[in-house]
Amino acid sequence: MGAVAAIGSIVGGVAKLAGGISQRRAYRREASEISRVGKQEEAEFREQGEQFKGEQRSALGAAGAEVSTGSPLQLMQDTARKTEEDAMKIRRETSFRARQARKAGGAALAQGIMGMGSSLLTATSQTYKFGKEKKNPWW
Predict the structure, then answer these.
(1) Which residue of 25, 28, 71, 135 has the lowest C-beta tally within 10 Å?
(2) Are 6 and 126 in contact (CB under 8 A)?
(3) How far apart are the C-alpha atoms of 20 and 23, rounded to whole Å?
(4) How many CB atoms lie within 10 A of CB 133?
């Protein structure tokens, strides 16, 4: 019976490792998707900012303001700066979320490895006890 239990522990350990590897792959895919979506959101936000700047320029020009100097220019520069700051915030947040997903994948793999190691130690112990009970000369 001890040999069967030892084999069961080994199979269980391999299953734990396979589960850790599978989870790591899933977290890596999630991180890639987060990065892809974040880049798209950032690009869309920048495009919206450019459209808004164009609308500002048109409105100021229609009002008769000189858009290349003074307060109108300062307003458009402030808009450009704020747009860039917000786009960079999207990039930072996306990067953080993707990094967290990759870390979770690494932790899942480590947990799988530890589970396999624990199962191998259990199998070794069970095999030793089985050999001792049978008064095997190897033990």
Answers:
(1) 135
(2) yes
(3) 5
(4) 11
Tokens 């003074």, residue? 70
The residue count for the chain: 139
- Residue-averaged pLDDT of the chain: 88
Cβ within 8 Å of residue 25, ≥6 positions away: 105
Burial tier of 66 (Cβ tally within 10 Å: 0-12, 13-18, 19+):
exposed
Q: Calculate mean pLDDT across residues 21-46.
A: 96
Rg of the Cα atoms in the chain: 30
CA distance 110 to 102: 12
Tokens of residue 84, six digits: 């860039």
**Residues 126, 2: contact at Cβ < 8 Å?**
yes
Quick: pLDDT tens for 100-134. Answer: 999 999 999 999 999 999 988 888 888 887 777 77
